[in-house]
Structure formats: C-alpha cells, structure tokens
Amino acid sequence: EKRKMCSLHRARGSVLVIFLLLHSATSFYLPGLAPVSFCEPGQSTIEVFVNRLDSVESVLPYEYTAFDFCAIDSEKRPSENLGQVLFGERIEPSPYKEDKHIRWASRWDYILESMPHTNIQWFSIMNSLVIVLFLSGMVAMIMLRTLHKDIARYNQMDSVEDAQEEFGWKLVHGDVFRPPRKGMLLSVFLGSGTQIFIMIFVTLFFACLGFLSPANRGALMTCAVVLWVLLGTPAGYVAARFYKSFGGEKWKTNVLLTCFLCPGVVFADFFVMNLILWGEGSSAAMPFGTLVAILALWFCISVPLTFIGAYFGFKKTGIEHPVRTNQIPRQIPEQSFYTRSLPGIVMGGILPFGCIFIQLFFILNSIWSHQMYYMFGFLFLVFIILVITCSEATILLCYFHLCAEDYHWQWRSFLTSGFTAVYFLVYAIHYFFSKLQITGLASTILYFGYTMIMALIFFLFTGTIGFFACFWFVTKIYSVVKVD
C-alpha cells in the first residue's frame, strides 16, 4: 500500500520516534541517520513497511502476513541484514492507510510516553560511580598504605642478617604462580572471554559514534556476530599463551576446545530455541539458509582464525614470572569464614552487579517488553564502570586471600567477578515473574533459554576481566619484593 503525504524527513522503522522530544521542532537529527527528501518532482506518495507483530503475553513474533486480516497481494520484500533475520523481522509492505485524524508530528507520542525517562539513567550512572569511588578508595588504601608498608618491611628484613620469619602474602611467593587445577578449561574460558570482551567494546563504541543507529534495524546484532567471527585470532592466542604458561602440552585439545566449547554450548541452546520457534510458526525462527550461513562463518572463518592465533600463542615463549615456583606445594593454613573461597566468590559479584542492575532493567525491557533501547552513551559508560568495578573488587579480595596464605588465586579471581552472572540470572528470573505477562510453555522456555545464553556470555566476559586484573596485580606486587 501507499499512503499520500509529502515530508522532508522520514523516520525509518518504529525506533526513531524516540527522539522527537521537542514538540515545536520541525525537524530532528539522529546520529547515523541522514534526512531523506520525498518531495521530488511528481512524487506524492511514500512506501511504508512493517516488520512484525508482537504481544506482551508472548515472546513469539509473527509476520504480518501470518494472519488473515493482514493479507496483502504484493510480494515485495526489502532486503534484510543478519540482525533483522535473527530478531524475526520479515519486512513487508503495509496494507494500512494513513490516519488523517492524527498529525504527523504527534503520531509517535504514545511510544515516547512509554519510554523510560533520562533522569533514571543519570541516577543509574551516579549509583555506579559511588560504588566505583568506594572501591577505588579501598584499593588505593591497600596499594598506597598497607601494600607499600608491607613491601618496605619485607625488603628491610632481607637486608638484616637475623631476618625474622616471613609472613603474610610474601610467604607464598614460591607457590603464587603454581599452575592451577583444570588449567586447560581456565585457558579456554580466558580465550573465549577475551573474544567476547573485544566484541562488546567495539560494538558499543561504534554504537556511541552513531554507526549502529537504531534506525538501521538489526545493525547492532550484525556487527556483534561479524566481530565475534573475526576475533577468533585473539581468542586462540590468549588461550594458547596461558595454557602454555600453565605447563600444558596438549595444544591440539586446547585449540579445539577454544573453537568449539563455549560457541558450541551457545549454538546448541540457540538451535533448540530455533526448533521451538519453527514448531510455533514464528517469524523469529531462523531460516535454514541463514543457519547454514552462520555455521559457515563459524567453521570457515572463526575456526581457522582461532588456529592461527593459537599457533602464534604456542610459538612464543611462556609468560615469565617474577619469582620461581617451589617444587613442593606449601600447605595452606586453616581459613576463617570470610577468607574461604565460596564466601569470597559470592561477595565479589555483589558490587559489580550493583553497578549495572538499573541499566539491566532497560536492556531487558528492550528485549522482552518491546521497548527500543537507544541510550548507547549511557551503556558504554556503564560498561567502563563495570570493568573497573570487577577489577577492583577482585583485586581487593585477592589481596585478602594472599595475606591469609591462600595462593590459589587463578580460578578464584575468574569466579569472583564471573559470579556477577549468577546475580544477573537471579534478576532475570525476578524480572520474568514481576514485570512480564508472558503465558504459554513455549514462550517461557524461550525466555529462559535465551537468558541462559546471555548469562554464559556475561560469565565469560566478567570472569576474564577479574582474572586479568588479578594477574596484573599479583605480577606487580611480587616483582617489587626481594626474594631469595
């Protein structure tokens, strides 16, 4: 269908209306979207397209043509990108005409009124900054006072002939770089986490610059998938580098697990969800051709790039540590409750989650409540705050455990910040029962299936941040202490 109108600007899709905040304005600008003129000589109509039908009681989108009252004669369908296909947006020409009783400048008011207010976003940022300042003060106190005094005292003891017995975190210098148990699995997680970290950072950076504007539907998902495919090299390199430093020799197993373990779990979950969508006849079901294309990108591009990165990682010499590792492991003394692994891991994820839970509400709204997310500047800032918070919280707990003569920091640092994903999962369950009106078994399975994918990605992402922060911290403090 065509509708008669002549306008200087066109809002593509149902997203751009968010930015019509000034009622008196005659035009607007959105980064990544240039105004399009439809007032060419002899032109008086504009072609309108629709994407899908949604319901607050179901996560299953459907094409407009799936229902009798939306039937159209035209078979014209604009080209779609990968992101639109993944979201089930089959673009069709609209069979409806313009409502002459609604002014053009007011037709999107009902969507604007449903959007969250910007002041809440500022509250989210201020809440996160308070947590970061608190953690930064704690870490600064340790680094500038406690740790500085420890180093000075330890070095002074080495210069005295009748040196007293070592104590505290220096006492475990011969075991702190001992390879962890399950080093193969940890190195694979670090490789996949590095791949996800770079993917998220670059995607959000491009979104802030306007290259991934909400006007370009599906562009965000397309960019994320393409970046993940192209970032196989750093994943293989990091996994191989740390696996070699852990003393591992099964390099073939390491690179194969890096290629297929975490991506395979995500793909298996996604494939099961896709089967359910196929069975329900939803437009969100990925076509078979697209599924084959995704597998081709994975096997033909990502896997070879991972092998290339692993080749260079194993070719380099192992990571040099500032102190030697003793042949016989030191016995760890009995730990108090708060210095044990499990309580520390559980406590370590609280502060990072506190930085993101408000922003997480808006993200879940955009995914499940059919609201459009457009504040990528806020999201990028929260991303940076999350990285800082995970790093500082993990370093803080790592220092306490080293002072208690517990040198098993590798897995604990990964799990401490990675436990934020567990809080994310608990919040997603709370959101499902308190905010959504979803009914039906299929929709419920889809919600929790996709939530598990997001939780796994978040676990690898935050866990990698915590490990690298602690790795830097431990290397730094033991490199400035004199050890016999």
TrEMBL record:
Pfam families per record: EMP70
Signal sequence range: 1-27
CC annotations in GO: cytoplasm; membrane
InterPro entries associated with the record: EMP70
Keyword DNA damage set for record: no
Top-level taxonomic group: Eukaryota
Membrane-crossing segments per the record: 122-144, 188-212, 218-243, 255-279, 291-314, 345-368, 374-402, 414-433, 445-474
Protein name: Transmembrane 9 superfamily member
Biological source species: Salmo trutta
An example Gene Ontology biological process: protein localization to membrane
Subcellular location as annotated: Membrane
Bilayer topology term: Multi-pass membrane protein
Alphabetical keyword list: Membrane, Signal, Transmembrane, Transmembrane helix
Family per record: Belongs to the nonaspanin (TM9SF) (TC 9.A.2) family.
